[in-house]
Amino acid sequence: MSNGVSTSRRKSVRHIVEPLVLLIAAGLLFGYLGRTMGVTHMFNTLFNTAHQLLLNTVLFLMGITVLTGAAGRLLVEFHVISLIERMLVPLMRPLFNLPGRAAMAAMMTFFSDNPAIISLAKDRRFNHSFKVPEIISLTNFGTSFGMGLIVITFMATLQNQQTGTTYFVPAMVGLVGAVVGAIISTRLMQRFIANDLSLHELSFSDTHSEMLDESRTTDPVWLRFLNALLDGGKGGVKMGVAIIPGVLIISTFVMVLTFGAPATGYTGGAFEGVALLPRLAGHVSWLFELLFGFEHAELVAFPITSLGAVGAAMSLVPNFISQGIISGSDIAVFTAMGMCWSGYLSTHTAMLDSLGFRQLTSKAILAHTIGGICAGVAARYLYLLLTLFTG
């Protein structure tokens, strides 16, 4: 009886505290923005920025997701991914301390997104050679490659209109940095849970996964080719639609907090802001420059946004390029951290919960935070090393 009363009181307190905290936080945020920019200009900037992101960034990203989705499904249908998987098998145990078939998890998340790891991890045909702690660490391993093809394609196709510079090489360096981050994140997670003896006594029950049954080998080749392209394109459309809330909501507010006022003062136009994040980052700018080589504090917005949604983070890059504050080294760091983190704060809880290990979320997040930082540092110094030898 007392437990029921206590639970009821906690719920009652929460129903009072939560709305108050939300109202206070919203009041402070919008009060600060409205006081600095003017209320009318603030709302106009928010709406105009979201509109420009929808037209110029989301549709561009959707085009990439459709094409890469079609390419990814085609590679699955005609067993190219299986071939790559067999080539990567010898690297899995030495690098990630995982069975060779874990390479398939990396391929699936690379060509799609983080949640692809769930259906694989729960499929007995896939997980039978894994220990339970290894299956749990797949959350960190798979997330490190989430949306990898999209991130790399986006970064590699960017071009600085003023200098004509392209960023294919930095994007490839970023891929290597992401692999470094994946190694550190996966092994850290395994280390965090190594002494939990209860995990070693568990086993997974058989479940079915469509991911392992996608090939339609009995159909004519031309039909398989066409269906793979169309099905992959449809999946790309779904992914493109799925990133809209993150891009419009997260990126809009990040941009308002990142960019400053125009020289002529606030007008309510898109991409105006209060430059709060650069001022805060400026207090530890030496650290960001040492780790990642960021010469402009505004660039901190990318890794911060990647924590929640890498699609939203990518939408920041064209504006950095137009302002002339970005370099090849920064693109390498962005690619590495964007791939490695790929919105893990918004997916890790759901992924571990679906596997039945929600209680390990904090450990997984800590390991992946460290891994993402190491990915950025590795990309920075690998790029410097490359430029040193290539001139």
Brief write-up:
This protein is mainly α and 391 residues long. The protein has helices at residues 2-37, 39-77, 80-96, 102-111, 116-121, 124-127, 132-143, 148-157, 168-193, 197-200, 221-242, 244-258, 276-282, 285-292, 301-306, 310-314, 317-322, 328-341, 344-355, 361-390. Helices cover 74% and strands 0% of the residues.
Work out the strand percent.
Answer: under 5%
Determine the mean pLDDT: 83
Low-confidence blocks of residues: 205-214
Terminal Cα separation, in Å?
75 Å
DSSP strand count: 0
Largest sheet: none
Q: How do the SSEs run, as a string of H and E?
A: HHHHHHHHHHHHHHHHHHHH
Shape: globular
Q: Over the alpha carbons, how many angstroms does the gyration radius reach? A: 22 Å
